[in-house]
Amino acid sequence: MWLKKVLPAAFLVCVSSADQQAAGSSFTPARPPAIPLAVKSPYLNTWLQAGREGGNGGYLAGQWPQFWAGQITAWAGMIRVDGETYTWMGSPGPQSVTQKAFSYTATSSQFTMDVGGKVEMNITFTSPITPDDMKRQSLLFSYLEARVYSIDGAKHKVQLYTDISAEWVAGDHGAVAQWGYGVTSDNVTYHKVARQTQLEFSETSDQADWGNWYYSTKNRDNLAYQSGSDRDVRGQFQSTGKLANTKDTNYRPINQQYPVFGFSSDFGTIQQETHSTLYTIGLTQEQAVQFDGASGVVPLPSLWTSYFSSEEEAVGFFYNDYGGASRTARGLDNKINRDSIAAGGQDYATATSLATRQAFGATQLVGNLTKQYLFLKEISSDGNTQTVDVIFPFHPILLYLQPSYLKLLLDPLFENQESGHYPNMYSMHDLGSHYPNATGHADGNDEPQPLEECGNMLIMTLAYYQRTLDIAYLSAHFPILDQWTQYLITSALIPADQISTDDFAGSLANQTNLALKGIIGTRAMATIANLTGHYEVGANYTTISSSYIQSWQNLSTTPLPIPHTTLSYNNPSTHGLLYNLYADRLLSLNLVPQGVYDMQSAFYGTIMETYGVPLDTRHGYTKADWEMFVAAVAGESTKVMFMERIARWIDEMPIGAPLTDWYDAGSGDWPIGSGHFTARPVVGGFFALLALD
């Protein structure tokens, strides 16, 4: 079991103060490869890189936070105690505080800092996840709370500082930023920053080229603010402990005298009492996505616009909601931790808690009070919109937390294809190559994964029904579901040379695992047909899938050297993760004999490496989401082995980046010669065990 780590001083020498290096920090339940700070959407997605390749070991002071793609999103924090200035976040210059501890939950990251042996700081980053409350989930905002108290019993004069830079507002740092300062009607003060020339539905280096960023806090008597160059604003606090309440009106490129937007708070003299300050960071975009649906290509508004009359109202609501939001967040944290430990032990909870914000951080609610959609960005790998074979590994987290959100993900795919915007008879791969443009593929030239995507859509549609009993949904989409099943009947048992979702591994004919998905998809449609009164169709598809699974067993299994399924038919020297077996158990189809489950479970233990089981015999890498699918339907001892290795990988992963799902099973590092896939929503698949309950 992998619970806690104290990193040695040598790991930190390049970035940390001497005191911090000497002390070290605990990390509970693990030291993630990157620590989520403000992670709520594809654009509000800022992390502290921690792995040795690009990170500093998980210390908040000494390194700038970064957008998931690697660009700096400068976020600074300083504190003055008795006239001496320290850094508690970022790298603005002064000596670092001593980080004593770090811990994370599903929604929060918490740091404990010692400041010169005089005062202590508790710093909490919370990105709320409220799947049962669309109003709150629609807001792309995150909290930062800093609490300060004396630890030596003496009186100390304390001032606190924080800022963000204009680097948050655009990936093109040569673009001109514009900013302002204001106070909401409910007394929340804010810096508002944006790209001066707004480019709607456009990205640069995966950062949005449109929308307004708000950095906010409560308007109090002890508060001061300032905007200006990084040197001027930060220098003002370092020298005086208070900002100048001045506004820089020289709008300029982001990388020219880097504009920053700061707040300072004077706590006066503290001794026994605790002082705290709350900040919020968030993005508002009135229009969120371009979608080719039943009405053609139209812009879709961010869902928050249906609940709030202005951006400022949303800013004030979110800030003042912190008390309730914190209680809700702790409730979700406790639920995920409790359920994960019960299902797979502490190692499993280590993984699910870290995956939660990353998974939801690829999504955004759009639409209005009449019709809502949930759009998903294929972060890191392609940047596609609504990729079906990314939704598939993502969807267990929705089945566990809020199944209705799965419908909101599938709806745009159904609507586009049922409106005649896609010419192929099989399911599309994605809704557009460049998020947030869900404009489809009217030419039919999306990435060809026909067997993969037909199976995925059938499986997920039935999974949604089984948890909601929404029979009308099955009836409404029966014709296109049946169309996709016809494709599976002709193509699933003997798959042609094609790619699967693991497209990076290359194409292959007669893929055992891919065939299994198609056969399970066919049986899922038999169930859908029976549920909707199409009994003859249901009986026919039941007969076909039963026949196919018998043939599949004969073609795909080998007794030597240890019984197992092969990577491709009649190829006994090969093997692979049979993760599509999970769908049979998820849907309670009982199509695949228990002997196949038992055989695979026993086999995985014989090929387990330091950090898991390789995806297949062609390469040494694996995928953590598919390992979770496999573990969910494996025997208890095999499940424990998978959980131990995944928790070890999280704790020891050398990559300084948000969780990748693709890594070397032997070393835990990036696959040799690969692209660096990171921050992908497929970690929603870590909830595979919980989705079964």
UniProtKB/TrEMBL annotation:
<dbReference type="InterPro" id="IPR052743">
    <property type="entry name" value="Glutaminase_GtaA"/>
</dbReference>
<protein>
    <submittedName>
        <fullName>Glutaminase GtaA</fullName>
    </submittedName>
</protein>
<feature type="signal peptide">
    <location>
        <begin position="1"/>
        <end position="18"/>
    </location>
</feature>
<feature type="domain" description="Glutaminase A central">
    <location>
        <begin position="345"/>
        <end position="690"/>
    </location>
</feature>
<dbReference type="Pfam" id="PF17168">
    <property type="entry name" value="DUF5127"/>
</dbReference>
<keyword id="KW-0732">Signal</keyword>
<dbReference type="InterPro" id="IPR032514">
    <property type="entry name" value="GtaA_central"/>
</dbReference>
<dbReference type="Pfam" id="PF16335">
    <property type="entry name" value="GtaA_6_Hairpin"/>
</dbReference>
<feature type="domain" description="Glutaminase A N-terminal">
    <location>
        <begin position="107"/>
        <end position="339"/>
    </location>
</feature>
<dbReference type="InterPro" id="IPR033433">
    <property type="entry name" value="GtaA_N"/>
</dbReference>
